[in-house]
Amino acid sequence: MVSEDCEEPSSRRGVLRAAGAALAGAVLAGCGSQSIRAEVQNSRPVLHSDVALLNHLLHLEHVAIAAYTAGIPLLAPATHKAGQLFLNDEISHAGDLAGLVRAAGGKPIKPAPSYALGHPRTSQEVLKLLHDVENAQIAAYVDAIAVLRPGTLKQQVASILANDAQHIAVVRAALGEPAIPSAFVTGRE
Amino acid sequence: MRRLATRRELVAGAAAAVGAGILAGAAAADAPVSDGEALSKALEVERLMVLAYRRVLASGALASDIARAIAPYLTHELQHVAAVAGQLAAIGEMSATGPLSLDAAAAMLSKHKIPGSLTDLHSQNDCLRLLVDLESLAEGVYFTALKTLSEPGLQQLAAQIMACEAQHWTAVSGLRNPGQYVKAVPWPFVTGSS
Fold it and tell me: What CATH number should be reported for the domain whose range is B33-184?
């Protein structure tokens, strides 16, 4: 994969890409490399009192996964690839949050058999659904950041929030709307 | 499917690297950082962003449609400056809010190992690449601040601005690489650069 990042040696993303290539094998083989989730857990405990909130965020990720999974076949070719990429991102977010719930001594909520996502029939209708789903996640993450402890957990949640903000910018552009309508991302734009 | 599998592998590695970065950062940052210090660093970066967008927009190197597309981001950066400076004022710390001087900006680029120059913008690619690097820096300053900011309102503000900078990153990167979503949103976790 060639990404924008590999052209940016100064960026953390660029460093991550290089490091990721080197570490991916070890991580996937479970050879002791630790995920961001594990590092957060090891630095300070994830509080048991945060289980319900983390499970709420996980629920919203399950909804997003369901929406992308159901909607991608209806997306126009120009946005189909973006949908696939964003689905993978949501799956990564869900895995991360499930780990945090476990670290807090909780049981990760499982995906429901189905979700009430309406009946989008066109690419535009799917994009509107995805816009609403992403916005719901963003709003929940912004709220959660004020509550979750410790600071490293806030960072982790913010890293997901920022990625969902990127998704919604692309979705808005595909809808023909201003991609970035506000200087402050709240999930209510 | 081969590309997706590769991306997944890289994501797994990236997550480990992010974690390692957080751990290393934790060791280096044992000294407490006040809200004022964290906000002052963010403000300095925002003032750099304002200068950078102004220089890029004035360079004459951008196609008119590209300039139109990114012009609103300068407005966003100005709003970020006002918001962060306002929070600093609220805790009794007055701060400069104008764009950085070119000398100070050059020193910051050097400090953060960002290639390029605000006085040497000859092509659209130079401009967009520099903005992408700077948006990474802006993401990173808020990501770092979130570890230590003590007030919930400040934490939310930092996250909201960080998310906006990530959107800028995606939009500018998308302008560099039209239609290549994997370059505009390459990772599921955004942490920026430091």
Answer: 1.20.1260.10
